[in-house]
Amino acid sequence: MDKYDPLQSDSYTEHLAEVNKTKQVIATEDIFNNAGATIVTKGAPITNAVAQQILRFKLTKPLHDTIEIENELSGDTLYLHFQRLLDSQPSFQKINTAFMIDPIVRAECHFMNMYPLLRQKLTVMSIQAPKLLDQTIATTWLSVLIAHKTGCDEQDIRSTFVAALAHDIGMLHIAPNILSKTTKLTDEEWRQIQAHSVIAFEILKNIPNIQKNVTLAVLEHHEECDGTGYPRGLFSSSLSITGQIIGLADSVIAIYTKRLEPAKRSLRDLMPILQMCSGRHFYQTYEALITVLRKVDLGDDGIISAEEMPIFIDDMLHKNKQLTNYIDVYDNLLPSISTKSQDNTCSRAQASYSFISNAIRGSGILNEGYIRWLEQVRSEKLGFAYREMEDVYLMMEEAEFQLQKLKQLINSYLLSESCSTEDKEIITTYFIALETIKDQEKPSSTDYSL
């Protein structure tokens, strides 16, 4: 697990200096370096010059414990953020009304006054990373909904609310140039981003009276049941329900905002995607979410026109063939390495592939009979089946995404010292086969990435 030292100044210091340009940020006491020298006097604003001075030293107390921000985010202001989310997303509003989530959210927003440090972090996030705050608000709303539908009691819902709000505060301590990078991250940069859950955990565990399940959930929100998550690579038997609720909500909001919403798709289109990754988090969390999505009328319109559908199905047939070939490669690759090494990464990869292959095979989308059905829909222009075609395409894309994650996991073993020469040769050979499949020419130039 990556380490985090709260006494070592980092990007949060620079964020505070930027916030000071619009809201006064002042030292509530003298700030000392680890040699005992005063570097900032009580009452001084945290300007850019002061921030640079702070960054030169390790401190005797965490910086966030020695400053105060003017007009910090209040319970009322926080509730307005939830209202703006619902106003901007009619489908969210439908669900919110159907399951009467608003009174729960309103009550929990005012409970936040008990955690001044979390209010401080969210205030900084609202100014320095507003998109991250928007995603945090959406994740918190969905987490509360899932907790409510899984039968959590009032205290567990409150813990879920607090943990969801706090789950990404660690991002404020990571260099902005890494978070905003649009090109491929280096292994070290990716490790820094992954550390955000550890950073948040270390910050939260020092808050007086905070529930242990809150801090644990924040630490675990990127863990997955098959052991492929981070930071500890835990399996389902070691994970908490609150962490799993937030993990599912966080991933679903990311899928919606990054893939579905830009393509003008609705929350309804999450259902086929969830079918492909239902083993990643506790099943009861998926079951609760699917129940919600099915109960509320979110519309059933697709985005592919009848004129485009024949070409779209051609691409589906191509993707179907690719997935079949990918599965054939992994069917041979995984057994060949899992029996040759005791490395934990190998067992995680095996568990991950078991989830993926079971989901793909269980869906029936690669069966020969289903291929014939695709061809029939295309040739006979069966309009009643067009919506199903889009659902299956979404399932295929999610399957590809999960297989890509599996490849990255195996690659981490390939690059490790514990990987034997024989395993390196085996993996390299199969990776070449995977690239050959990937490079197969599509039947059309149209990009239907959803």
Structural features, described:
- Helix content is 61%, strand content 2%.
- By secondary structure, the chain is mainly α.
- It has a two-stranded antiparallel ribbon.
- α16 (309-338) runs antiparallel to α20 (421-438).
- The longest helix is centred in the C-terminal third of the chain and has 30 residues, at 309-338.
- It starts with 10 loop residues before the first helix and ends in a 12-residue tail after the last helix.
Descriptive terms for the model:
single chain, 450 residues, mainly alpha, two-stranded antiparallel sheet, two-stranded antiparallel ribbon, 20 helices, 4 strands, 2% strand
In short:
With 450 residues, the protein is mainly α. The protein contains 20 helices and four strands.
